[in-house]
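Here is one chain, start to finish.
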Amino acid sequence: MNRAPQPDTARLRTERYQVTACLLPSSRRSRGQACALPIALTIEPTVHIVDDDSSFLLGLSRFLRASGFRVETYSSAMAFLGASRRDEPGCVIVELRMPEVDGLDLQRALGQMLDPLPVLFLTGHPDIASVVRAMRGGAEDFLEKSTEKEILLEAVRRALAHDQQTREERTQRLTLRQLFDTISPREREVLGHVLRGRLNKQIASDLGIGERTVKVHRQSLMIKLKVRSVAALARLSQEAGVCTPGATFNKRNPHRTVAPRPKATST
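Its structure:
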């Protein structure tokens, strides 16, 4: 068997150094210490292994640790749900068939969480129906325990890369939504109409306000959102996930949007 690749210790030392620098007040940092990366992106991800086969659990955990991964093991799905830090980056390797709560049940439970971890099935009992259910449920991969080790390592790397990407996207959306929280409810209404392509005169008529008032709200929201064009405004709204072109804001809950009704077509 080929020797497992060793972890990049220099990179890990650099990341830990950057985390330490980020935690220090700026006045206490030395000239060479800089918070170059967000703290959330420098936490070492964890590979969580969930399997009721203790011998396989031990062997796989040793192999992944030797390959440079941080690993936590659990003998059941309930043990994982009760003990793991699911707000930290990582992925889950899970056996399909386990007593009480099986792999598919665990996948569903993770899918209902705010920050779900990618799930990679590694089983000794595959069947077509379970594979289909797992992949439809968003599984990262579905492998047999007899799979070559390099294929397994590649699957783990993909799962961790996917988790990092989705976390970065969620962080970006949260930042943008906080920016949108600075605009007033009336400005949100105007924004919804602007994204539908309505003119100031039409917006004024729809909302029962003066056209000059619409212009004031429109200018104010664009200043707050730091954009200069409707195209940039539409793109920012889509990235934040708060409103899409053609949608209007729900008046009772301005954080929600109402999808536009499809236009009737003559037959």
